Each structure stands twice: as structure tokens, then as C-alpha cells.
Amino acid sequence: MAATTASASVTLNHHRSVVPKHHGVSLNSRIRVPARFSSNGFTSRIRATSAVAVEPELRTPAQDATEAELFACPICYEPLIRKGPSGFNVPAIYRSGFKCRKCNKSYSSKDIYLDLTVTSGTKQYNEVKPARSELFRSPIVSFLYERGWRQNFNLSGFPGPDEEFKMAQEYFKVAEGGVLVDVSCGSGLFSRKFAISGAYSRVVALDFSENMLRQCYDFIKNDESIISSYLALVRADVSRLPFPSGSIDAVHAGAALHCWPSPSNAIAEINRILRSGGVFVGTTFLRVNPSAPTILRALEQSALRTYSYFTQEEIEDLVTSCGLINYTSKVQSSFIMFSAQKQ
What we know:
- This protein is α/β, with parallel strands linked by helices.
- Helices cover 27% and strands 19% of the residues.
- The chain has a 9-stranded mixed sheet with strand order 1-11-12-10-9-6-7-8-5, with helices on both faces.
- Helix 9 links the parallel strand 9 (248-253) and strand 10.
- The relative contact order is 0.17.
- Residues 181-281 form the Methyltransferase type domain.
- One of its GO terms (biological process) is alkaloid metabolic process.
């Protein structure tokens, strides 16, 4: 999240076109989500259950598969036509234009990130989300997110970004070489880790907050290893994800479930975009146990006015009712990491 509102006319002076390697990944829907974690205080449960005018143009099958067809129109879910330099990285996407081949709507990448929200391009209409979503659109909160805000999560049992990343990578082993989408990525704390890991052919840092994505860009703009990697910054609504059905290998949602206006709609969308055998990993805060200290219960009651916290049982019920299987969870205090697969 950014300290000040970033200029929408940032110029990228170091463009590098990169043609991504295309890794064929076959995900077996019967593969169990791994749970090979050392004993570290966690408890685990496993259940097997610039706007550019775009005109149609000829593109090679390889280009269609690796670039254009990854993104879809959030209105009709048709793959977008892309016009611009090849390559899946921030500079190349910034210099490209995208247009829906069905509804003819164009989508802009002029603000560093590619805006694939339904309201992209509106001039008079402005859609305001619930307070839990609007809070993170603030430039101040965006700036503070990695400068003290998230460090406070440790008080609730979060093990810290490095350990959380390692835990998520264990679940994502079956998706290595595929496409990973980091939904509600915030300032890109985990998106950057996934991108530089080299484990994925492409990584999409996706958030509804414009300022979070600008903050993410501020973190990566001077790091050539990330800015030219297979990373895209995308603004989108988690309940209307801009990808074709069955096109994504892995979805990560760090400390996000409690912030979503409709968790059920979001997880249903995640199920839709995952390939068969694809993996979803999320973390969130659990609702405080009635036996917890009074001060913790008081803090939770205050937070519940803004966020939605759940019990372990409610999260499992929600995830499995949205059609995902092989549910697994690990818990420490109020922290939970959960994972499931697309059938």
C-alpha cells in the first residue's frame, strides 16, 4: 500500500521483451495435497474430500497460449486480444493494449497495472465496496502494510512471511511450472517471493486496490530480477476473476478471506479458474476461542465490525461446499493456513 498516491503516468524506461518458457504441467486431480511440515507448534487437519486501441490480429498458437489467453474479460470471460510487445512481464504488459473479442471492451494498462475490473474505463460511475475492501485502497494503509501493519500479525500466531511462503510452497509442489495467481496480493509481499522462486512459468499479482499495486511496483521497479521476470500486476475483483475457466494451476490468498465482501463468491470463482488438480492455499485469522483471554475477545469483537472471522469448521465447510476437495489445514493460535484442490 503506497505512502502517497502514485502518479498514473509513470514512464517505464527499461523495457525488456521476454518470451516466457512454456512448461507443460499435468495436474492429477487425485494427487493429495502434501502436508510435510516439521513439528513447530502447528496443529494440522486433513480431509480427503496507457489504453491502446486493439484490433484483431494474427497471432501464433504459442503466443495465444502463453500471453493473450491467460487474461479474460471479467464481463463475459472470453480471452482477450493483446496488441503490443511480446513477453509476460511488467514493462511488456504496460506497453500493451487488451480488448475483448466478444463484447469489444478495451482494458487499460496505463497505470502500471492492467485494470481488469468490470468498471475499468468508466468516467462517471464509481463503485464503492464495503469498508473492509475500501480500507486497503488507502495510500496510507498501502504504505504501512509492509512497514509495521503486517508484522503485527505475529501476535495472532502468524509465523512470518518467510515461513508462510515455505509452507505454501509445500502445498504448491504439484503446481510447479504452472501459472500462479496471488489474489488479494496487497503490496506484493508474497507475489515477489513466488516470482523470484523460479517455480512458476508466470505469476500474477492481483488486487482490487490501486494503491496496493502501485506500492508493489515501487518495491520492484529497481529490481531487474523481478521487473523482467514472468510477473504481471493486475487490478481485479476476487469475485469476478479475469481468467478463463480451468486455466490456472495455483491460487494463493494470504490473510485475505476475512476481508472479502463475499468469501463464498470468491472461492467459487477460484474453483472456476483452477485446472483439474490445481491448488488453492489461503491464510486468515480464526475467530477467537471463547476460552481466550478477555482482552483478545474484546479486540475480536471490535474487529468483527469491519472483518469476518471464521472457525476452522466454517472454513472447511465453505471451501468444500464450493466444490474443492482434499482439504487440509494447519493452525497456530488464531492463524490458519488451509489448502484444497480442484477435482
